[in-house]
Amino acid sequence: MRKTFLAILLLAALSCEKEQDKNPTVSTDNLKRSNERTDTKQDALSEEVALKKMNDEILQALKVGYYDIFSNYIHPEKGVRFSMYAFVNRNEDKHFSKIDFEKYLPTKTIFTWGSRDGSGEIYKTTIKQYLKNWAFRKDFTKSEYAFDTFLGKGNSLNNLKEIYPNTHFTENYIPGSEENAEMDWNALRLVFEEFDGKYYVIAVINDKWTI
Questions:
Q1: Using CA atoms, how far apart are residues 20 and 53, in angstroms rounded to an integer?
Q2: Coil, strand or helix: which one is 180?
Q3: Are 59 and 140 in contact, with CB atoms under 8 Å apart?
Q4: From the CA atom positions of the chain, what is the Rg in Å?
Q5: CB 78: neighbour CB atoms within 10 A?
Q6: What would the mean pLDDT of 131-143 be, rounded to a whole number?
Q7: 46 and 81 in contact (C-beta within 8 Å)?
Q8: In the prediction, which pLDDT does 36 show?
């Protein structure tokens, strides 16, 4: 009888473990319950560690489509610029103030974001579709990470440091595949600037091998 009871307990424990495996803890759970950004005191963590944490939180928000949470990281005065490629074009790249980003985010308003490399086709879409299909076209939560360093180096001009001097940036890099001679790599860079003791995003830059 005792052996039977122990066997039942063992089966119950295994069943619970399997159930937990099916429903792993999602790191974005806190994002779902709160619409506020997470801030870390500068005296508690170094700049690099603090920005790595912000970088990861932003990637998680973009991955699951919590774009309203991403908006909490936009610079309150300078807003944010989206660059389709490594070369930042102040005249062509789309720029939003924090207020306008939040205003147009839930709408179906079409914006012009820039020109596609190779074809020169003008890329037009909504904010949500741009973030989903272009900015986060790869799962950058599984990428290689670098701080103030470029991992992706292609054939297009990279003028980040010239356009955004005296700032910090993070790079999330996905290497290319062997079958494509490693030319199908992708990178997502976030540029941060300090304001009133907190860091905010002023630029979201994608990079890839261009024709």
A1: 26
A2: helix
A3: yes
A4: 21
A5: 16
A6: 98
A7: no
A8: 61
Q: One-letter amino acid identity for 53?
A: K
CA 208 to chain centre: 15
Q: Which whole-number Å values give the CA distances from 12 to 8, 9, 19, 23, 178, in the listed order?
A: 6, 5, 11, 17, 46
Element (H, E) at 111: strand 111-115
Here the CATH number for the domain that contains residue 140 is 3.10.450
Q: How far apart are CA 184 and CA 177, in angstroms?
A: 7
Separation CA 107–CA 73 (nearest Å):
20
Q: Please give the model's pTM, rounded to 2 decimal places.
A: 0.81
Strand partners, 125: 111
Would you say 144 and 174 are in contact if contact means Cβ atoms under 8 Å apart? yes
Domain count, the chain: 1
Phi, psi of 170, rounded to the nearest 5 degrees: -115, 150
Residue 28 lies in a domain: no
